[in-house]
Amino acid sequence: MVEAQTWTTRRMSNPRLLDATPNDQVLDIPATPPGDVRNSAHTFGLHLPPNLFTALVIASWYLSNIGVLLLNKYLLSFYGYRYPIFLTMLHMLSCAAYSYVAIHLLEIVPVQQIHSKKQFFKISALSAIFCFSVVCGNTSLRYLPVSFNQAIGATTPFFTAIFAFLITCKKESGQVHLALLPVVFGIVLASNSEPLFHLFGFLVCVGSTAGRALKSVVQGILLTSEAEKLHSMNLLLYMAPMAALILLPLTLYIEGNVAAYTVEKARGDKFIIFLLIGNATVAYLVNLTNFLVTKHTSALTLQVLGNAKAAVAAVVSVLIFRNPVTLMGMTGFAITIMGVVLYSEAKKRSKVTTH
Question: 0.90 exceeded by the pTM?
C-alpha cells in the first residue's frame, strides 16, 4: 500500500528519480514531478499564499501517512477484519479510481500512455514486487504495534544498499556504509526489548521493507530511458489495477470468500463500510500528498519529513493503542532514526564529491 521511498539509480540515469528515504507507508510510489506540472494551488482551484498552501500540503501528508497506518492497525488487529490481502486489493482499486479522476478529469498532471509491450511488462514486474511489499506490510500490522513496524521500516536504506550492490554493482562510500551500522544496531536493540515481539510479524515486516527497497532499485533501472519515463502519478494509475489483478486470485485462495463475509458483516455493522472506504481513500491520499510535498518543497525536505514522520507515527500509535514500550526499545528506535539521518547526509556528501 503507499511507502516516497529510496530510488537507487545508476550513473547517467534519469536525474529526476529521487534518492529519498522516508519510512512510510502502505503505498510507496515515489514522486517524480516533471517541470511542466502546474506550480501553484490554482491546480485545485484554490487561491492561497504559497507558504500557507505548502504548510497545508505537509500537514495533509503527515495526517494521511499516519492515518492509513492507524486505520490498518485498527482494522486488522482491533476490529477483527483479518484480511490483509483483500484490504490491499481495495487500496489498489481505490488508487486506480482516484488516479483516473486526478489525471483525466482534474488534469493535475499530463496523461502519459504505455508505448510498448516491453514497457508494459516492466510495469507488471514492478506491480508484482509492489504487491509483495504492501501485503507483507499490512500483514505485519496484525501482529506488531505500529511503533515497532515503523522502527523496522526505517531500515529501508540498509536493504536498498544491498540490492543496489547485488543488482547494479553500485558501491557506496565508506561513510555511507558506516552510517548503516547504527540503522541495523538500533533495530536489533529495539527487537530484543520489544514487549509485543512476534516472530512471524517481524519476518513479514522485514520482507515488506526489503521488498520496498527492491522495488526502488528495480524501478530505477527499468524506467529510466527517455522513451519509458513515467510520472509517478501515471505510474500509479497503471500499477494499481495490475496489482489488484495479481491480488484477486491470492485473496480468493488464501482468504476465502472474503467479499461475501464483508457484505454480511456490513449488514449488521454499517461502520465497516465507512472504515473500508475511508481507509482506501486515505491510502490514495498518501500518494497524492507525497507528490504535492515533493512538488512544492524538494526531495530533501521530503526525506527529512519522512524521518520525523516515523517517530511521530510511533508516538501517536502508542498514545492511541496503549501498546507497552520499553526504554531500551525507544533507545533502539532513536538510534535507527539517527542512523537514517547520518545515511542521508553521507549520501548527499557522496553525490557532491562525485559531481
Answer: no
